[in-house]
Amino acid sequence: MQNFRLSYNSLSEPHFFDVNEPQINIQQVSNAIGATYPCDGSATVTDVTHDSRQAREGTLFVAIKGTTMDGHRFVDDVMRRGAVGIISESDVPEGFEGVWLKVANAREALAKAAAAINGDPSHDLALIGITGTNGKTTTTYLCYALAQACDRKAAMLSTVEYRIGSESEPAVRTTPEASDTNRFLRRAVDAGCTVGVMEASSQALDLHRCDWLRFKVAVFTNLTRDHLDYHHTMENYYEAKKRLFDGRLGEKPGSSVINIDDEWGRKLAAELTADGQRVVTFAQDREADLTAKNVEVSLVRGTSFVLSTPAGERTVTSPLVGRPHVYNMLSASAAALELGFDLEHIVQGLSTCGGAPGRFERVPHDGDFAVVVDYAHTDDALLNTLQTARDLAEGRVITVFGCGGDRDRSKRKPMGEAAAKFSDLVIITSDNPRNEDPLAIISEIEAGVVGHNVPYEVIADRRDAIYRAVAVAWANDVVIIAGKGHENYQIVGSEKYHFDDAEVAAEALAKRSEED
Predict the structure, then answer these.
(1) DSSP assignment of 281-299, as one string?
(2) Which of these, 71, 253, 295, 360, could form a disulfide with 218 (CB 3.0-4.6 Å)?
(3) 140 inside domain
């Protein structure tokens, strides 16, 4: 699989998430979701959605009462536009004329209805679901590449992009809504795909977006501090992730691939094993079903190691850089073996996959120092990225990073501490400040840097911060620009501006080259 940066093919119609033409009536949907159904069920349903803007003739609209918006406000509007009926947790309102399906949980009903209307497409694929704090996207890309190496047409839903075979479009969110996912999988099956791979975020799992999908393999990468603004505690965060494995989605996966170097992974593996499920473990620091021996990492040559599996041992040479990527390759290899892929083809796929854009991605230039863009936006991810940089750098490690606004504040000081631990110079800047004061966010990060005896600078403008890091780099230094990775935008207030770390770094490198 080629290594690329957001170089999407223009998609011909139909669009990945366009409505297909299922043959199902309301009574069948009502039976699938266990609804209270008071009227004739002969009308044909063509789609289901909770987004009123997608409602059209033949659509079932799911009215969800969220934290900021109540879908019941749009009932009259979607009915005027031809919706065939409403799914809701509420009783039918007085005077309503039409189909009203009352359910216990509207989000779960959305997932059940989407699966039924689209003919349960996940049952027709060998579907891999990947969850964890770090490594989901790269592991998804690797699984997709391994399917290609084994001559299997594959579909992929990732943080960066959605793919069906060779067609691609930018991703809107890490894990789409259940209605979008089922439409996507239906189109993938119809296009001849036999393998699917998708990221399953903790919020998506908690909000029932992955309910009633049949996963052949479920992968757990790790669990570290993130999204505590949503989950509040690590235990809640873990329980959300565990939904992918324990049957609460509707059925248990065929097998579970788990990182047992991670303490939460060991807990999960023990609980699933006690439940009688098939568990395949991977690790670098302890005995496991899949391990890596003799790991060697180079900015120039990538990463090599001996892959040890139940099917035998092979030497892997990968363009990916860093020990964190070894975990990703172990998990993808384990998932591929669970699908019956040949070990030789797995090694071939690992040797050619450049991974996901913005994951320890080197910015090409002719200078004598390295510039790397990385998506690390948690303290653990930043720590791993900087440890890799420290192991590879013959000179200094210069780190540029910030933290997003309106998001988990608890990780800001720890990210400052992580940067201070492995950097020789830290430049604290903005990420996506959103509706927060950038300097207030920076101040919370700065609290983690102060006292660590490492020089640091505060440059709120992210472009200026990147230019500064490139300007002060010496021979053999490694400049790490962390936090945004593949993202090509910056959100300030409610406005979204084009901003690509790799593009800005390339501009800064060109300017430095002109001045030298």
Answers:
(1) EEESSS--SEEEEEEEEET
(2) 253
(3) yes
Measured between alpha carbons, how far is 49 from 468 in angstroms, rounded to an integer? Answer: 47
pLDDT exceeds 50 at position 11:
no
- Compute the distance between CA of residue 280 and CA of residue 260 in angstroms, rounded to an integer: 10
- Average pLDDT over the chain reads 92
Span 262-293, pLDDT tens digits:
999 999 999 999 999 999 999 999 999 999 99
User: Do residue 111 and residue 126 come from a single domain?
Assistant: no
Distance CA 25, CA 250 (A): 22
**Residue 1 maps to a domain:** no
Note every long-range contact of 15-18, with CB atoms under 8 Å and residues 24 or more positions apart, other chains counting.
Answer: 15/169, 16/162, 16/164, 16/167, 16/169, 16/183, 16/184, 16/187, 17/176, 17/180, 17/183, 17/184, 18/183, 18/187
Whole-number Å distance between alpha carbons of 104 and 83: 21
Q: Is residue 99 located within the same domain as residue 197?
A: no
Which residue type occupies 360? F
Cα 400 from Cα 429, distance rounded (Å): 7
Query: Of 63, 30, 38, 58, nearest to 46 (Cα)?
Result: 58
User: Element (H or E) spanning 88, and its range?
Assistant: strand 85-88
The token pair that represents 331 in the structure block: 């998990």
**Is residue 93 reached through a cis peptide bond, with omega within 30 degrees of 0 on the bond before it?**
no
Pair 113, 125 in one domain: no
CATH number (domain holding residue 83):
3.40.1390.10
Q: Around 351, how many Cα atoms within 13 Å sit in the side-chain half-sphere? A: 13
Comparing CA positions, the residue from 4, 352, 361, 7 lying closest to residue 168 is 7
Question: pTM of this prediction?
Answer: 0.86
Domain holding 70, by residue range, is 24-117
Domain boundary among 327, 352, 377: 352
